[in-house]
Specification:
- There is one protein chain.
- Helices cover 75% and strands 0% of the residues.
- With 462 residues, it is mainly alpha-helical.
- Helix 1 runs antiparallel to helix 2 and helix 1 runs antiparallel to helix 6.
Length: 462
């Protein structure tokens, strides 16, 4: 098929990128960009479980300091919707790429500054205030990052490979966790004991400055999404995309958010730093060394990466909905096995518990990019996927480590945490069952009428 006269050079009128070299460049850019973003996000969560309660919140006492430290992890999620609203608005009006460059610089800058912060002992209450401020900036960046990265990948993809292309920004998350845990573990070796608390934890934050430069260069050399380019060429960009989103698709946003919440609550047992703290607490039931635990988390990120990419690929064959259903069943099994294996008290059982859990997490995360992109019309797609993701993160992972810590402190057992995570998994499954599978639906602006039909079972498709 030849390109239409109005189509951007190098692109087909169906909204897919023309050459395999360009496709590889897009995939590479989304993986690198999201890896940098989530490395920054996860080193904060790891440090919150290992260090921050001691150096920023120590006057509160051990238990309250730990709860507040985890609460700062969750606090950033409350600002993700702000990032999603801003990114969705500007992404639907001015393009995906410009938003991605901005969010990358914002995240990296905030992360680098955390590594330079004085402690409570040095400047008093100003230290935790500055820490919280920088975490809020991370939340705003994370809220805007995901939607843009997803659309750059999926809107460039061939119709039959959207799941696999959409998995590219998704695998940036486990790679970010792998890097964050690996570098933290390395610093635990280089600066063991008190040295880690004094200065070792800062090095991973300061390394973010180098990663910003790499990610910025990569993202600046990627073409704009062809779907957005077509919208711009035709002057069909929505003037107020967020208003249109909630006017016509509020229920869809809520259901899509609940799908992600079921995955995110369980995932934040490791990405939110809870397992790292629980397993290394010298006064707890496990009491493992910090370094080996971090290495086990890093190794489980590899299994998460593999299962995430495989799930994206298989969703192109089984459909997004069927892949998700398989994932929820696997995730539920992983939830019930997690704490019995962690509480066995050795590194290998800890790793197996996390590895089993990540298989289900991958299957409920890998297809998400394609699923979300196929739910919303082209003109408001950035707003739809970003806001659904941000709300799902609040409902799921935002305070999952804090809730888990409070449940164990109240009951003295991890059984309560297991049932909490199982409940969130079932909510994700129920939300998935409410959605029709729209795998392969045309994403370009020519098909806006078809895209606007409700994908929710029981709703009118007119």
């Amino acid at each position: 098929m030849s390109a239409s006269p109005s189509a951007p050079q190098g692109f087909t009128p169906t909204g897919t990128i023309a050459t395999s070299a360009d496709r590889r460049r897009v995939v590479f850019a989304t993986v690198v960009g999201t890896t940098v973003e989530w490395y920054d996000f996860f080193i904060y969560a790891a440090a919150a479980g290992l260090v921050f309660s001691q150096i920023f919140f120590e006057p509160l006492g051990a238990q309250a300091a730990l709860l507040l430290s985890f609460a700062t992890v969750g606090l950033s999620f409350l600002f993700r919707p702000l990032g999603a609203f801003l990114a969705g608005h500007f992404g639907d009006k001015y393009g995906r790429r410009v938003v991605l460059v901005f969010t990358l610089v914002l995240m990296g800058g905030a992360t680098t500054l955390v590594g330079l912060l004085p402690t409570y002992a040095q400047i008093g209450v100003a230290a935790p205030i500055l820490l919280v401020t920088l975490r809020i900036l991370q939340g705003i960046s994370a809220g805007g990052e995901w939607g843009g990265a997803v659309l750059m990948a999926v809107e460039h993809a061939p119709k039959a490979k959207r799941g696999m292309f959409g998995a590219s920004p998704q695998i940036g998350v486990p790679i970010g966790l792998l890097l964050a845990s690996g570098i933290m573990a390395l610093m635990a070796v280089i600066a063991p004991g008190d040295a880690f608390i004094e200065w070792g934890w800062r090095v991973p934050f300061l390394l973010s400055f180098i990663l910003i430069i790499v990610g910025y260069w990569v993202r600046r050399h990627v073409e704009e999404s062809p779907v957005f380019t077509e919208l711009a060429e035709r002057k069909e960009k929505t003037r107020m995309p967020i208003v249109q989103l909630f006017k016509k698709h509020t229920l869809l946003v809520i259901i899509a958010a609940l799908v992600f919440a079921g995955n995110n609550a369980v995932g934040y047992m490791t990405t939110g730093g809870y397992i790292q703290n629980y397993a290394t607490n010298p006064d707890g039931p496990v009491g493992l060394e910090r370094g080996p635990v971090l290495w086990a988390v890093a190794a489980s990120a590899v299994t998460w990466l593999i299962s995430t990419f495989f799930a994206g690929w298989i969703s192109d064959r089984l459909g997004r909905r069927n892949t998700y259903i398989i994932g929820w069943i696997l995730q539920l099994a992983g939830v019930f096995l997690l704490f019995p294996l962690v509480n066995a008290g050795n590194i290998m059982s800890l790793f197996f518990g996390l590895a089993i859990l990540t298989v289900g997490l991958g299957f409920t995360y890998g297809p998400q990019a394609a699923l979300y992109s196929e739910l919303f019309p082209a003109s408001i797609r950035f707003s739809g996927v970003s806001i659904s993701y941000a709300l799902g993160a609040i409902l799921g992972g935002a305070f999952a480590p804090t809730i888990a810590t409070a449940l164990v402190q109240a009951t003295g057992s991890t059984d309560s945490v297991t049932w909490y995570l199982a409940g969130m998994t079932c909510i994700g499954l129920a939300a998935t069952l409410l959605l029709r599978d729209r795998s392969g639906i045309s994403l370009g602006p020519d098909h806006e009428a078809e895209q606007t039909k409700s994908p929710i079972y029981g709703m009118s498709r007119a």
